[in-house]
Amino acid sequence: QSKPQARVDGSTGVTFSDVAGIEIAVEELQELVKYLKNPELFDKMGIKPPHGVLLEGPPGCGKTLVAKAIAGEAGVPFYQMAGSEFVEVLVGVGSARIRDLFKRAKVNRPSVIFIDEIDALATRRQGIFSDKTDDLYNAATQERETTLNQLLIELDGFDTGKGVIFLGATNRKDLLDPALLRPGRFDRKIRIRPPNAKGRLEILQVHARKVKLSESVDLSVFAQNLPGWSGARLAQLLQEAALVAVRNKHESILQSDVGEAVDRLTVGPKRVALDLG
Ligand code: ATP
Fold it and tell me: What sequence ranges are listed for the domain AAA+ ATPase (predicted)?
């Protein structure tokens, strides 16, 4: 009854060198990696590990990537599930999945648990203030609250689960139940912002390593002229540029291929006039 199960990557293979353009304290992340590499040392020194770390920021800016990089740097298994996978109307299914997820991660500790879109299961509880009378709605709400309670129980019991780091990601922190944000639950919060021009260039450079780019391409032109583009979109841009280059029968990606790819990804009324060379 507790399907679907978490997707586990023995090792994610992702490292901090794959993450670019995010101005967050690398030391803060390194500390988590150090803990995962040697939880006993922290225990011996009497240092309390963080219970949970909340990664917060807009879609496509690298929350999942950062989570995978923490596990990858430490070389530990990564248990990934989406918040929506815990939302079921059937009583007890969501909480059983939570129990199962934590149990499996503890057996294989040190390890990382990552729940993406955590807002789907951890929205603010409504309690007696709910004015909805619909039975199905109430049943679903109650079930979600039971699931959230189970998550809180697991986080509270983390001292017995040494060597497991719990990471959650959201782009709607405002929707989260305040109980989850209390110290001892998500006691660290890392804000991941959309990249600025410098960040966009660094992200393009990371993804340029994966495609065949002509030496003549000046990526800084694109970085400067694509405000608001997320890391995910910039990664997609270089993939698209590679396809355009193949179609144009170029041996490597040229500046004009990247420009054409921008055009292809910038559609409809949102299309902007760019001078991309
Ligand atoms: P969502 O909220 O939609 O789940 P997210 O913030 O978790 O988004 P990711 O899934 O980490 O975003 O990003 C998707 C892909 O975009 C990554 O696998 C990577 O290829 C690329 N990407 C995003 N941000 C970065 C970044 N900062 N550096 C390098 N690549 C990035």
Answer: 49-196
